[in-house]
Specification:
This protein has helices at about 5-15, 40-55, 65-75, 80-85, 90-100, 115, 125-130, 135-150, 155-185. The protein is mostly helical. The longest helix has about 30 residues, at about 155-185. The protein is elongated.
Length: about 200
């Protein structure tokens, strides 16, 4: 240690009342993708309650059913599969899903929603133009309305569902990958064709 460094160390020691360091000790903590202290169920209940209050959507489904719809949507279940699980019609699941701003790309894959969003023609005219049924046009208009509603809220609710349900899936996949990688490292180079 040179003379200048020694002087600085002495000054530091005087200023800090003799302590050798001013840094705080670090703890080894386990990381988590989940930062919210509430459980997943509590967070989902909160989102559904907020949306029901804000949009006043009417559905025969309970909040628990709506949470089931959201979870199943993130597990890539179809409306028919979800409807069979809950015991309702698939159209009710479709409506509930859109009320929750859970829109699938396949919901309007046959038509450009931007093109029909502001069209004033009736459903029959648009059905002829796009060569689909009027029921499909009504469905597409409902999807467009749900998209508009979601965008007006800056996709806030969809983002919250993503952070809870998509991140939970990601956490599980990452944990599985870590376990598998650890096992691969531990068994690397081991003889696997062993007879007892």
């Amino acid at each position: 240690m040179n003379e200048k460094t020694e002087q600085l160390r002495d000054i530091f020691t005087d200023v800090t009342d003799g302590e050798e360091t001013v840094t705080e000790s670090q703890e080894d903590t386990r990381g988590s993708l989940e930062r919210d202290e509430r459980t997943t169920a509590e967070r989902l209940e909160n989102i559904v309650a907020q949306m029901r209050d804000r949009y006043e959507f009417e559905t025969p489904l309970s909040d628990d059913d709506l949470i089931t719809v959201a979870k199943a949507f993130y597990e890539d279940e179809s409306d028919d599969e979800i409807a069979a699980d809950i015991g309702v019609d698939a159209d009710e699941i479709f409506e509930a899903r859109l009320s929750l701003h859970l829109i699938d790309e396949a919901d309007a894959d046959e038509v450009d929603l931007a093109a029909i969003r502001d069209r004033e023609e009736d459903n029959a005219t648009l059905a002829d133009e796009y060569n689909v049924s009027e029921a499909k046009i009504r469905r597409y208009r409902r999807v467009a309305m749900a998209q508009d509603e979601s965008r007006a809220a800056n996709d806030r609710y969809r983002d919250e569902f993503d952070s809870i349900l998509a991140d939970a899936d990601l956490s599980e996949r990452m944990a599985t990958d870590v376990r598998e990688d650890g096992l691969e490292d531990a068994t690397e180079g081991m003889e696997t064709d062993v007879e007892f």
